Amino acid sequence: MSDAEYDVVIVGGGVAGLTAGLTSARAGRKTRVLTGAALGGLLISIEQIDGYPGFPDGIPGYDLGPIIQEQATGAGAEFDATEATALIADGERWRLTTDQGDVRARAVVIATGTTLKALGIPGEAQLRGKGVSHCASCDAPLLRGRTVGVVGGGDSALQEALTLAQHVARVIIFHRGSAFSAQAAYVQRVLENPKIDVRFGTVVDEAIGNGGLKSVRTRHVSDGKTDEVEVAGLFVYVGLAPATAWLGDLLALDESGRIKVDGEMRGSRRGLFAAGTVRAGAAGRAASAAGDGAAAALSVDRYLREGRSG
Ligand SMILES: Cc1cc2nc3c(=O)[nH]c(=O)nc-3n(C[C@H](O)[C@H](O)[C@H](O)COP(=O)(O)OP(=O)(O)OC[C@H]3O[C@@H](n4cnc5c(N)ncnc54)[C@H](O)[C@@H]3O)c2cc1C
């Protein structure tokens, strides 16, 4: 795609990027979407997306991305499963660098989302893929009849604990706080589930195992008492880090590294827009990411017509 030029290039293949691609193509803009490795984004590994409009019984996360992509392709958007490595001003245009060559655009929508944070404890990196995981739906079937740990106390941790409980013998949730921050519906289902134990006020300090996870070392935050708990899997949901490092200091970010935008998804540089969980103040649900993508694409369309930008 060397030096191809588009009205709009969208960076990100999650719900926000795919919806931006769909909306932009429908507005008649020559549109390219660089999806990176994960078409569907974070949702690709989620067994059931709850609360997405139009699917009252939920929808598997790995199904939603391809459905939106097909719709966007039908509207005329083009796709590359490639990653953008740099974004550089090029006169009135923007140039994106990828391992398949450069692409130029009059406007760019950044929808690179977030990645799940690691705990940063000893043993975690060595045992990743050997018991330590971020993906309940991928690994749960391999852990039937076993005990697994989940770390975290928000929506993701509780939702994934409920998914795991459908497959494994027992789930232990380790949460450093004294109460969950998740939606009430998840909290109730977790507390009522006989397969799930909850250890509040507990941190995981070490993942232990040689070639495969065997146990975790835990510590009670109030008295410092430690324990070793046998688990065959450890699923970590302790927050999300925005994928903005590749942008360097190009755009104004908030203190968490998310892109600051105004009400029309415009970033701090002319012609650059952001959508989804990579933007400051995002609501963090799939429906809001889709809404952001549509809003950003329509804002780009106005910008290209009227030359208005942040
Ligand atoms: C465990 C878990 C369960 C969840 N369950 C639900 C649920 O039930 N219901 C709900 O509404 N929400 C749920 N969410 C939240 C939901 O997943 C997110 O709000 C939504 O996926 C965000 O979409 P996004 O498009 O903004 O970003 P992401 O999904 O993070 O997508 C980012 C995209 O950017 C791409 N990318 C990154 N860097 C680059 C680059 N340099 N170049 C090109 N592409 C790049 C990635 O490949 C990916 O395609 C859950 C989240 C988690 C972690």
Uncertain segments:
none
Say what oligomer this is.
Answer: single chain
Percent of residues in helical segments? 10-25%
N- to C-terminal distance = 29 Å
The secondary structure category is alpha/beta
Work out the helix count.
6
Number of strands: 17
Largest sheet: 7 strands, mixed
What series of H and E elements makes up the topology? EHEHEEEEEEHEHEHEEEEEEEH
Ligands bound, unique: flavin-adenine dinucleotide
Report mean pLDDT, rounded to a whole number.
95
Radius of gyration: 21 Å
Strand content: 25-35%
Globally, the shape reads elongated
Outline the secondary-structure elements.
Layout: E1 4-11, H1 15-26, E2 31-34, H2 61-75, E3 78-80, E4 84-90, E5 93-98, E6 101-110, E7 114-116, E8 132-133, H3 136-139, E9 147-151, H4 155-165, E10 170-175, H5 184-192, E11 196-200, E12 202-209, E13 213-220, E14 226-230, E15 233-236, E16 240-242, E17 272-274, H6 286-306
Parallel strand pairs: 1-2, 1-6, 2-3, 6-17, 8-15, 9-10, 9-15, 10-11
Antiparallel strand pairs: 4-5, 5-6, 7-16, 12-13, 13-14
Residues 11-17, 34-38, 41-43, 46, 49-52, 83-84, 111-114, 116, 156, 159-160, 237, 243, 246, 276-277, 284-287, 289 line the site of flavin-adenine dinucleotide.
